[in-house]
Amino acid sequence: MKKLKHLILILPLMCTHYFSKAQYVQPEKKIDTIKLMPQTTFDIAKAKSALAPGKATIKGVAFTKPKTKFGYNAPFGPRIYANKIKVLLFPVTPYLLEYLDLRKQVNYKKLKFAYMSNEAWNIHYYAITNSEGQFTFPNLKPGKYYVEGLLNWTSTGSYNQYTGSGYGSYGGRVDYYDRKYYDVAHADLLNTIVEIKDNDEVLEMKLK
Fold first, then answer.
1. Whole-structure pTM value
2. For 131, which DSSP code?
3. Which of 2, 111, 159, 193 is 20 to 30 A from 19 (CA-CA)?
């Protein structure tokens, strides 16, 4: 009987030892980050000159609209104003235009990203919107400018969650549901290119 007990204890250990070493361990698929960088030479002097003080002004309002079930902005939906967000303004240069084209190739799942150099990034202005999405860039020269802002906002949805069934007074089955609510986070990139043509121009724009 003692021998049988020892055998019962030893067998699981033998089986565990026998199967503990895998025949082959499949390695994880290695995906390297793909960095897309403009090949155009960035002209620092021209970019700085484009942001030299002038007499023109850009006045804008930044907003988005609720999404349809297909993911597009509802054309007749209420405006969602960009409350206290940072709006960036870059001079339009060949380098920047190439960077914007590269951004169309970005694929987050494949770790494919577009980058601009620190030199190009550092030459820009920024403004902060008010609660109605309004922003201003004063003291600008005539020229083309790229304006961009990221608007984070949240929408609320609901659905009926099944909680059980019962029988009515006439014997028929009755299903019961509770109304459940959930939030959906959104991040809309607002961007456009505008052009100031006159020295004293006050350009009014919509950033959406």
1. 0.76
2. T
3. 2
